[in-house]
Amino acid sequence: MVGLKEELLKSIWHAFTALDLDRSGKVSNGVNWSLSCPQVLSHNLCTVLNVPHDPVALEEHFRDDDEGPVSNQGYMPYLNKFILEKVQGNFDKVEFNRMCWTLCAKKNLSKSPLLISDEDAFKVWVIFNFLSEDKYPLIIVPEEIEYLLKKLTEAMGAGWQQEQFDHYKIALNTSREGLSAWELIDLIGSGQFSKGMDRQTVSMAINEVFNELILDVLKQGYMLKKGHKRKNWTERWFVLKPNIISYYVSEDLKDKKGDIILDGNCCVEALPDKDGKKCLFLIKCLDKSFEISASDKKKKQEWIQAIQTTVNLLRAGSPPPHKEARQKRKELRQKLLAEQEELERQMKELQTANENKQKELETVRKQLEAAAARAAEEEKKRLQTQVELQDRFSLELEREKLVRQKMEEQVAQKSSELEQYLQRVRELEEMYKQLQEALEDEKQARQDEETVRKLQARLLEEESAKRAELEKWHLQQQQTIQMTEAEKQELENQRLIKEQALQVAMQQLEQLELERKEALEQYEEVKKKLETAANNTKSWKDKVAHHEGLIRLIEPGSKNPHLITNWGPAAFTEAELEQRQKSWKGKKATSE
């Protein structure tokens, strides 16, 4: 009953919105219709739906307030409670739809001339309500438009122009999600996809699709039926529906002669030719059996297969094929949409993470450049200090006390500088560890990319499984209903769309891979600069150790006599002092 209620609401929605009610319950001419319009609509609905009308409940529901009939406390709660919940299904769907069509067609139907009649426009409107999405305002998506146009083209016996529809679909997708009922009527009535066909052919095609999708007519045609009493053969027009076969005097369906009620216990079997009748088959039910003669062997086989398929669906409790196919198309669209949204979300997260890593690497690079600049400045200062020390030592050779004092001060100063430089080296090592952590984060990003690739592979496997399942179903149904070919083509087109979406995702992943390689190259450059700074540090240490008098190891004193100063024994002997004086003089002469 939930599906029936949704179908009824779509037609009622068209009729209700055509009343032009605003939230105060007034129409455009200013007259208060808050009760009269819903009363008229409710009375008509109760009449066509065979539901007892309760005008007192309607007036009680719409007591004087400021909200009006289109509020949350307005007409829709009344409609659900007092009308739709009482619907039993014993009503004429065509008459119900025609009543709703009468209320809304005059206002919304295009005034421009169409290639279809008003009756055909009504049938297209009913088909729209069947194929439209279950959300308001009602629209029909491009996939369902393609399905409908293909069935109309097939019914007209023409070839489907896929390229023409693709151009139309591209133009449609750039502006909106789908078409309204009136836009669909204009599209079919304009003859854009039925060029070369006369009005009668288009009308017959619309009627055939209407019978299949709305009236659940699975098959129809003339055949001979053997009477139960007189045993004579009479030509009848047979109409096969999901649970019944009705037969009429002619195809205008005015004079109905009887029904064959189908259930899971029925069966159909071919009979040999007899009594001058050919192409015979028998329909067995619990209470009766019916002998029927088709016009040829092909028609006989088609009817046997169609009836047997209907019985199988009744046994399985499955809906008619076109309703089941519509539900599968909706579920597939919802699943593809959910997968696409999930993929976009993951791609956005990966892109954000990659951008954050790039920013972190850029910050580390700038820090390393600043550290290298500071190291170069310190090296320059150190060299300048060393030159100054050499000049100072040359001038203070005459005074041993000042020399010793100066040397001790310089040693302390150099020790402090060495400690500071070692501190800077430790800072550089810490930065190197941070670079390693950044590299680990980059590896994690690559693992995330691999996860996305595996997800894409899984999606492709699922798509392959879906395609295999659809092909299997197609082979099973190919001999029974030709319309399944169109559904298979539609599913194939949807698979191609999904593959295109996956290709776009793969291109984005390749772009991320290129960006990761660029970040790795930048990391290698930073690493080389760090190694260069480390080599410069080692070279500086060697130079400091090489120069005499800057750092001196503490060793056991010599047994030779030492010089005595005002502060005690000197740090070197007289011979050592003479040797050092000669060395300093030689260096000074070389520098001059």
TrEMBL record:
Location of this chain's protein in the cell: Cell membrane; Cell projection, Lamellipodium; Cytoplasm; Nucleus
Superkingdom as given in the UniProt entry: Eukaryota
Domain PH: from-to ranges: 216-312
Pfam families, per database record: EF-hand_SWAP70_N, PH
Keyword Coiled coil in annotation: yes
GO CC annotations on file: cytoplasm; lamellipodium; nucleus; plasma membrane
Principal localisation: membrane
Coiled coil residues, start to end: 322-543
Keywords recorded for this protein, A-Z: Cell membrane, Cell projection, Coiled coil, Cytoplasm, DNA-binding, Membrane, Nucleus, Phosphoprotein
GO molecular function, one term: DNA binding
Subunit structure of this chain's protein: The SWAP complex consists of NPM1, NCL, PARP1 and SWAP70.
Record's function text: Phosphatidylinositol 3,4,5-trisphosphate-dependent guanine nucleotide exchange factor (GEF) which, independently of RAS, transduces signals from tyrosine kinase receptors to RAC. It also mediates signaling of membrane ruffling. Regulates the actin cytoskeleton as an effector or adapter protein in response to agonist stimulated phosphatidylinositol (3,4)-bisphosphate production and cell protrusion.
Name the record gives this protein: Switch-associated protein 70
Protein's organism: Zapornia atra
Gene: Swap70
